[in-house]
Amino acid sequence: MAELEIDARKLSMILVHIKSKFTGLEPSESKEYVEKSILARQEITSEMKKVREYLDDALTEEMARSIVVMGDMNDGPGRDKFEADFMLQNLVDVIQGTLLNPELNVFHVLENLQTDAYSLEYEDKEEGGKKKRELIDHILVAPGMFLGTALGMAEFTYQRGSGKVEHKAWENHVGADPDHVRDDRPSDHRPVTCRMS
User: Fold this and answer.
1) How far is residue 37's CA from residue 83's CA, in Å, rounded to a whole number?
2) Cβ atoms within 10 Å, residue 98
3) How sure is the predictor about 77, in pLDDT bands with cuts at 50, 70 and 90?
4) Phi, psi torsion values for 115, nearest 5 degrees
5) Which pLDDT band, with edges at 50, 70 and 90, does 172 fall under?
6) How many CA atoms lie within 13 A of 13 on its CB side?
7) pLDDT tens-digit profile of 114-136?
8) Which in 3, 113, 114, 173 has the greatest CB count within 10 A?
9) Mean pLDDT of the 161-184 span
10) Exposed, middle or buried by CB within 10 Å (0-12, 13-18, 19+), for 41?
């Protein structure tokens, strides 16, 4: 977490790289694989719950505060097989907030993207190596930065419609071979960006 001051305005940036769902085991119906997969998702939820608790405390103290949460959350919109089958919650749902306190909910700035937007492309071993695309990198902003609140606007505001996945920037760095050795690329994730004023 970084607390920035720009022209006497304060911005809190929380950068996350949440635990991966990867278990190190080949997909199977084995008890060990299922248990490790569930445990990985429970650990992910536990990590994000701590971020959510921080947001609840910070926004309760100062509703119009400028806070951005961003990074590789290793989960995306919708539920995967384990989340659906075992009633585990989706990570993005955990961080966004609850219907019980909607005034504290943070907002996803990639709201204008098509449903097939993605920041990662990979071969899914659970589906026989089929190439899949997922949006697992996210930017979320405090309510005062997105809509304002009854207590006013935050010192920084998100410029509506500016959130995007930077496919071109990623392609400029990987060249003609996007499947190049992972360690030779700046990242296997496309960056996500937005503008604030």
Assistant:
1) 10
2) 12
3) low
4) -65, -20
5) confident
6) 9
7) 666 889 888 877 777 888 888 88
8) 113
9) 75
10) buried
In the chain, which ranges are E strands? 2-6, 9-17, 67-72, 107-108, 120-124, 130-134, 137-141, 164-165, 192-193
Placement of tokens 């993605």 in the chain: 118
How many angstroms separate the CA atoms of 70 and 133, rounded?
Answer: 19
- In this predicted structure, the answer to whether residue 84 has a pLDDT above a threshold of 80 is no
Task: Count CB-CB contacts under 10 A for residue 51.
Answer: 19
Q: Tens digit of pLDDT for each residue in 13-31?
A: 999 998 888 788 887 778 8
CB 122 within 8 A of CB 132: yes
Provide the whole-model pTM. 0.84
Amino acid at 149: T
Structural tokens at position 106: 């943070």
Tell me how crowded residue 60 is: count the other CB atoms within 10 A of its CB.
Answer: 11
Alpha-carbon separation of residue 150 from 64, 105, 153 (angstroms): 9, 14, 8
